[in-house]
Each structure stands twice: as C-alpha cells, then as structure tokens.
## 1
Amino acid sequence: MLEDSYRHRGLRKKLVRIVEGKGITDENVLEALGKVPRHYFFDKAFLEHAYQDKAFPIGEGQTISQPFTVAFQTQLLEIRKGDKVLEIGTGSGYQACILMEMGAEVYTVEYIRKLYERTKKFLPSMGYKPHFFCGDGTKGLPAFKPFDKILITAAAPTLPQPLIDQLQIGGIMVVPVGDSNLQRMVKVTKKSESKISKEYFDYFSFVPLVGKFGWGK
Ligand code: SAH
C-alpha cells in the first residue's frame, strides 16, 4: 500500500526549501515538487533516499533524476496549464508527474521496454495518466505534433532535428547537450518554421540519449 504520511510530507517540504535555496523561483514548479510523493518511486529499503536532492538508480542502468535537475528543466520550460508536452526519457515517470501537476498534457517516450512497461503500470496507480510510448524518442511523435514544449531528459550529442520540426512556433525545447560526462543545459525557442534561438545554462550529467538522432544504439 502506498502511504503519504505526515512525515513524508514534512520531508518533502524540506526538499522544496532546499531546491528553492539552489535558485528555483517558479512557484508552480516548487508547488508541484511539494505535491508528488517521490518516495512512491523508491523501494522500501531505500526510502531515506527519496527526499534527498540526489539522483537514484531505478534499475536497467537508469536513474530517477535529481529533484533540482527536474525543477531546473521544468522551470526553463515555462509550463502553462494545458500545454502539450513531449518528454523523451520516461524513466521512473517522476518528471512526467511534475509536469502533470502543473496542468500539462504529457506525451512521454521511453526506449527501454522494461521501464516503459513498469512505469505505464505504476503511474496510473498513483493517479497520473500521461500518454505512454515505447521507442526511439529522438524521432519524436510525428502523429501527435506540434508540441508546445519538448523536454529531453537524457544527454544529447546535438539537437535532434525531428524534435525541432515537431515544436510549435513559439514553443520551447529544453535539452542537455554535450558528451557522456557533462552536458550544458540548452533552452531552444522556435522563432519561425526555419529559425530557432538558443540560450545556455549550467552543466549537468545525464545518462546518454540513444537512438537515431542521439548517440545511436
Ligand atoms: N525523466 C526520468 C529520468 C530519465 S533518465 C525521470 O523522471 O525519472 C533518462 C531516460 O531516457 C532513461 O530511462 C533512458 O532509457 C531514456 N532514453 C534514452 N534514450 C532514449 C530515446 N532515444 N528515446 C526514449 N528514451 C530514451
């Protein structure tokens, strides 16, 4: 049974203050962080890790992102209620829950079938219902374009062109770009059908984005 106790809520409040202290100012992001029970994503044996500001292994060699990183990417996306958001790298589904708490409609793609199956089953049991897809997210979801916002939660070598194509004009894409050790957070704004602008932020360390417009298989 999943239980969100008084103690868990207290720990979550502390986590929100920590993330705020690291520079997150978007109240809606902080509020969402305070709502999603991150400990539901952890095995009982590792519960004490759930409310530390750290990434954590979720199996299949993948991780649930650090809360600060989730908050940072979400803040750059400037999420508005009703935004249609494409997320590449479902993983645990935690980031997708944050986006949904903020009123976004989420399309999320995971490459690893086992993770896709697990998260597709688990998230609805918590009451979160994104649209789940299994496959190479670097190709996007052409059948569902355009997206108001696109979020890549894995390290990309370059900006995947199909994703730029599937972004709404005026839309924002947030993606960590770099090598396998370190990536720079990039915020891409689509200015017109053929023009984008880029803004560069801090360095982060994500697992590699595989697939055709990522690092390959
Ligand atoms: N957003 C996740 C963290 C994801 S870790 C969370 O909130 O927990 C990055 C994820 O991206 C991994 O699960 C990895 O398997 C996935 N991934 C890597 N390349 C991908 C691709 N081309 N398409 C879809 N998913 C990909």
## 2
Amino acid sequence: MNPRKIRENIWAVGTNDWDRRLFDELIPLPEGTSYNAFLIRGSEKTVLIDGVDPTVEGILLNNLRSLGVETLDYIVSNHAEQDHSGAIPSVLDAYPGSKVVTNPRCAEMLMDHIHIPGENFILKEDEETLSLGDWTLQFFLAPFVHWPETQFTWLQEEKILFTGDFLGSHLATSDLYVRNEASVYISAKRYYAEIMMPFRRKFPKYLDRIENLGVEIIATTHGPLYDRPEFILDAYRDWVSDNVKNDVVIAYVSMHDSTGEMAACLINTLIDRGLNVKVHNLTGVDIGELAIDLVDAATIVWASPTVSVGPHPNVAYAAFLANILKPKTKFAAVIGSYGWGGKMLEQLQGLQSNIKAEYLDPVIIKGRPRKEDFSALERLADQIAEKHTEAGLL
Ligand code: FEO
C-alpha cells in the first residue's frame, strides 16, 4: 500500500496483508490483517511509530523513500512482537544513526527477540516526553496489551494516540478510518476475544486514561483508525466489564449422533425457556467465532462423546483455548455420551482451571440417549434458566 496522509506531516506508512489467513499459527484471519506504522515529521525531528511484519518490510521502506525521508531520527516501538518490530533492524540499516525509543522492558525484549544492540536505544519511562521540535510525543506504559512491555505514544498537539495492538482489529481494508462501524465492531470483538480478553482486568484504567486525554484519533497497529474514538472505547467498556448476557454457548462434537441428539434437546429446551443459544460444532470450527461468543456468554456447555476415556480431542482443544482466553463465563456444564466408561467430566474440568464458573449438573450417559436422559437435559435447561433469572439476565 502507498502512504496515506492522516494530517499534514503525519502519514500511515504500513500496509494491509490481504492474504494472510493465520496469525501465530493459531488465530484465524478471515479478513486478513494490516500492520500499521506511522511517520511523523516534526519541525526538527522525524519519527517512525512502530514497524511492520518482516514479510512486508520492503513496502514500509519504499513508503519512507517515496515520502522523501532521508533522515529518520527516531523509531518508537510500542510493542516488541515481531509483526511490528520485525522490520526495525532493516529500518535501522536503511537509516543508520536513528534511535529506537521505548521503555526499558520493551528494549530488553527487542534485544532478545530481534537482536537490536543496546546502544541503539533511548529509554523512556511512563509519562516521559520526546520533543520533535514543534510537536511532543509522550509515552504511557500500558503493560499486558497483550505482552508485558506494551506502551502507548501520544502526539500531544495533534491529539493522536498510537496504541499499538490495543483496540485494534485484524482487518485488511482500504478504509483509513472506520467507516462501517457494524462491520468493524465484529472484527474488533474477534481481536479482543482472541488476543486481549485474558488481560481485561487491566484495561479499565487504560480506557480511563485515553478518555481523559481527549483523543481525536486512535491509531492502532491493526485495522482502520478511529476518528470517532467513543465507538471503540464504549465497545471495550462493555467487553471488559463483568456483565454477561443471557447467552448460552453450546460447543459440541458428535461421532455417532448420541451427543448430537443430546445437544439438540438442550438447544431446543433452552430456546423454549427464552435463552439465546450460540451453537458451535467443533468439527472444523473457526475458533475465533467461538471466542467472540465467549466474550459475553453467561454459560458455556461442553458437549462431547468419549474417545477412549476422555473428551473428544476437538472439545479438549476448544476447552484448553477457552481456558487461556479466561472469559467471564458464570456457569458451565458438561454433557455427552460414553460407550463403556471414562473420565470426560474430570478431564474437561481439569482443562479449565482459569474459568471461575459454577459447574451445573452434568448429563453424561451411556450410549444413545433415552427418555430419562432427555428429561435430565430438560432439568439442566431449567437449572441454567434459573441461574440466568437469579443473575437478572432473563
Ligand atoms: Fe500485533 Fe501483539 O502484535
């Protein structure tokens, strides 16, 4: 992508990655992604805010050249992960003498991960500033969005906040700014669910700080920029809160349809009781879609057949991932079928020590469900409905 002008002397110089479909060899990218980097030309100093993924570093360097950048004084690194830092060594080669400006923890990680020599750094602590001449950058530490070294950079006079990954979205789009909020909402929620959710308790104070700054533009490293910051700030306020919705996620696999019949019974009964049901067949599921539904759901039900003595591996995988994501789920249950025995319940609960949910009565049966098993599933639906009613959700 060519450079795009944000304001006079401020440019977006990163690029979309339209084709990438997997991040960290784990996270699906149905809409591609972008690696945003920004060039700021102050009256005395020129600075690059973040780099890009090393696979597209040639585009970043071309963009700097096309803008006539002959000297780069500073490269601010808000986050050491390689999709932003990976191009920094090449930028340093192209602009010898430029310094990497970041906090001490980020500098240490950049030394470890991409071998930037220690003498290349200018270190800044929380709230310290850097003059560009007519403009001033200020740095705010914001650890664990989503690594421990992360920070924000604030261009004071222009009221632009560069937040690194925070508030971003894996979305390749030609829009420099968010233009379709409904679409970006889903992409940003997916990004939050997959990457940020485990650290949600740290975020309210970051949101407070951003709101108190009076930000006009939020420039993240992934996805379109926000020129209506309240859109994404309000969304994050909702997602990071302890509030859950009247939603039940049913994540299931069935091999010979016994568990499938059980899941169908539970789904229908829950709908009859007035609950919203989000169903994910874990055979070939986009795990990001499950993660999105876990952001808000009050209840999750794992439904699995027994493979050997434990849950189906697809269910175990999803439960393991959910445990990493630490959703605010309040209630959980396990249903499923076995052929001759097993420890599915114990194994699934053991995989979810991070999820502080109250476990409701399991329904784990031998073989294909009988009348009394469907009755047990209806009682479980009643129990879930009661819990949702007590929580004021229904
Ligand atoms: Fe976009 Fe955590 O890197």
## 3
Amino acid sequence: MPFPKDFLWGCATAAGQVEGGALEDGRTPSIWDTFAAIPGKTYMGQTPAVACDSYHRFDRDLDNMKKLGLNAYRMSISWSRVLPEGTGPLNQKGVDYYKRCFEKLNEAGITPAVTLYHWDLPQVLEDKGGWVNRDSIEWFGEYAEKMFRTFGDVVPMWATVNEPIATYVGYAIGAFAPGRHNEAEGNQARHNILVAHGKGVEAFRAVNPKDSKIGIVIDIWKRHALTDSQADHDLMVDEDERNWKFYTDPVLGGRYSDYILEHLEREGTLMHIGPDDLRLMHLPIDFYGLNVYNRVPVTTDRQARADYTQGGNFMNNASEYYPKAISDAVRMINKMYDLKIPIYVTENGTYAVGDEPVGPDGIICDDDRIRYINGFLSELETVINEGCDVRGYFLWSLMDNFEWSAAYNYRFGIQSLNRETLQTEWKKSAYFYRDFIRRARGL
Ligand code: BGC
C-alpha cells in the first residue's frame, strides 16, 4: 500500500536557524544570539544574525516549497520577536511577519506546522535564570496562550517544544546556549521545560482554537548494545533512560522511571518536582512529533567498537546508514506507551560537513542524502503498512542553515545557501524529494 492520500509531506526549519533579522523591527536577542557571540562557542565564530534571511525572503522559501510540491511546512516562532520582553506586550511587527507567513502558506495549500519553542529563549528571560527558574513555566504559558489567541485561526498544527533535551545540553553540558555546565541545573531545566509544555497544552485547551491540534516534538536516538555483555546492556539502558526516556516517560507515560529517580537522587542532582508537575506533563496531546536521525551503538569493548567502525555501513559524513532507526522508533514508542495518538515524523535528514561536490551539470550531487531519505522513507512506508498511525514526514531541512554550534559548516539542506547573495539552489536531493512527493501524492 502506498502512503495515505492525506499524508503531510513537508520540510522543517526553525526560526533561530533560518530567519536572521536578529535585531530588526523590535526583536531582542535570544540565548543563541548571545551564545554565538562568545568566542569559541560556534564554528568559526559564525552567528545566526543573518542566517538564510528568511525574515526578508519568506517568498523565496514559499516559492521553493510550491515547486517541491509540499503540502506542509514546519517552522517555529521566535519568542523574542513577538514578545521582546519575554512576557508582556506583543510586538506588532513580529506578529505581522508570522501572520503573513501563515496566511501565505494556507493560500498555497501548505499546512503550517508551528513550533513555539525551538531552543531560542529570549535573553531577557535567561537573565532572570532561564529554564532553571521555575517561573519559566509561567513565562512559557503566557507566551503560548498569546500565540494561540493570535494565530489559532491560521495554524492547524502546533508543537509546544522541540527536543527538550536541548535544555540539558545547554545547562548541564554547555555545548548549546546558554552554555552552563551544571548537572543539577540541567536536570531542573529539562524538568521545567516539560512542565512548561504542559502549561502550553493547558493554554491551548483553554483558548481552544478551532480545527487545530497540539503536540510535542521529542527526538529518539535508540541505543544499541554492540555485544551481549552485561556491561554493554547496562550502558544501553543507562543512556536510553537519560537521553530520551527522560522526556517520553513523563509526557507519554505519566511518570519518570524509577531508574531515573533513583540514579539522579544518588548522584545528588535530582530536580525539584512540584505536586502538580506530573499531571501537567502528561496532559493529553493530539499527536506525537518524532525527530529521528540515527541509532547510537554503545559498547565498553574496544574491539567491538573497532569491528563496528570497520564493518558498518557508513556515509561520507562518517555516520552510520541505518534507516531502520525510523521504523524501530515508531514501533517501539507505540508499544512502550500503548500510543493512541498519531505520530508525525517532524524531522529526519542528514548532513555534509563543508562544501558538497558539484556534478558536471552544475548541481550539487548529494547522493548520500538521497540514499538516506529514500531508505528512511521506505522504512516509514513499511511501518505504515503494518498499521502504525504515522501521518506526515518533515524533511530536515528545506535549505542549509545555522546548524547551532556547527553553524554553517554542517549542511542539512536539500538546497544550498549562498551566504553572500543569500540565494538558495536546489541540490540533487531536492529534485529527488520533489519526484518522490509527486508519485506519493499522485500529482
Ligand atoms: C534539531 C534541529 C537541528 C537538527 C540537525 C535537531 O536536533 O531540532 O534544530 O538542526 O536536529 O542537527
């Protein structure tokens, strides 16, 4: 059976990675503007100040979406563009920008799938303690409510938060904004953002925008033990618990695992959990957004690691080609939480480091990306045929963009970006994706 007729075929981007216009029309800096300005934090000190300039070139993006035959587009709102103080009065110019984007998408028959928080906390809120401060739950609730009231009639699909793990990477590991290195703060921050998600869901139900749905996006990087040893098994369990179950357990299952609670307690980094927190985190949602890129093999055994590295199926960027990551994740999540809501694959894609080769026809020849997308889509089709309720696929990404700490050096786009002229150009994978969608949609 082919993909369902009403399946959503999209590309995904995020405000902090494509918009630019960092300080225009009343926008204030986000934590990523601040972080990128600190020497050594991003590749070559590159910043998101201009990025793909989508703030001024949304029509260029829209034109490409039409040519690709997309019927959905996943984007995010920059919190500090619409609420420059983080809370309080709306910035009309920021609101107008998004209103125009959403209306144009709708006119083109492209469903806007909008994420409220894709990692770009207003710096003014970070100055008040950021996600470690419990007030962040209320700040987000206010922001969410304002967005639902403002755009509820033009946005049929909302996600509260994209990949809550990014708060942990930002507050505990320091590799992402705001660049703090404190395990206990990281745990508190990632807990708070999940409760904030719940506040967002609560606000959504209160505003109750007509014909609109709410979900969350959580990434799954399933660990695979490379040997049968107890040590590898334990490592796999530990990493699964900390890296994605930390988020899926409370949101989809209603509780943190005993494993997490016991381990964090023992490590002295257990977060404060308020009396109403678990209820909020577990409020019913309408869909689960799955970001999936790869599996993660783990082992304590050097030889097993070497064998895997030599024997595996790798791409030019040195990451493994493992398309079953997508079908494994869909089956596993359905089973673990007895999921009764549809899944949308909200991100999937692969990258090249630095410039990609150009073919004799002058077009970037990204055969690895084509192989990757084709492999993942074929696995996705398999699980849909098995009866799993997956209703959309958003390719990351519409174009090369600001890839966080790796800045413009990691290229995830099916279009390249000329950083001088700010023009985009189709890679071979864009033609491939267009043709795939045409066939799937029967166009
Ligand atoms: C994030 C994107 C990012 C992509 C590729 C996801 O984790 O949501 O913002 O660009 O992966 O690394």
